[in-house]
Amino acid sequence: MSAAAAKLLLLVVIPPDWDADPAGVKEFRRCLVDKYGARMNLRQARVAMRSPLALYFGAWPLGTIW
Predict the structure, then answer these.
(1) For the chain, how big is the Rg over CA atoms in Å?
(2) Which of 40, 55, 60, 61 would give a disulfide with 11, using CB separation of 3.0 to 4.6 Å?
(3) Per-residue pLDDT tens for 6-65?
(4) C-alpha to C-alpha distance for 60 and 44, rounded to whole angstroms
(5) Residues 51, 9, 7, CA angle at the centre, nearest 5°?
């Protein structure tokens, strides 16, 4: 893994009234590592939200965020 890939991070914030499927989160993390060498942090919001929020940190390959 390159130094740039080691710094890729996806932060996902989910609404407080949502539940994340542990198996789905595990699979998604595995896919991020396999394809991009990235990490993911999943957090539960403390205030009401309409939908999840995804924040990308690092120099992701072009077109990844879409």
Answers:
(1) 13
(2) 55
(3) 689 999 999 999 999 999 999 999 999 999 999 999 999 999 999 999 999 999 988 887
(4) 24
(5) 165
Q: Which two tokens stand for residue 13?
A: 């914030």
Contact 59, 18 (CB under 8 A): no
Backbone phi and psi for residue 4, each to the nearest 5 degrees, phi listed first: -65, -40
φ/ψ of residue 23, rounded to 5? -65, -40
Q: In the block, which residue shows the tokens 């989160």?
A: 25
Residue 21, token pair as written in the block: 């499927």
CA-based torsion, 32, 30, 54, 1: positive or negative: negative
pLDDT surpasses 80 at 4:
no
- The count of residues in the chain is 66
Separation CA 21–CA 31 (nearest Å): 15
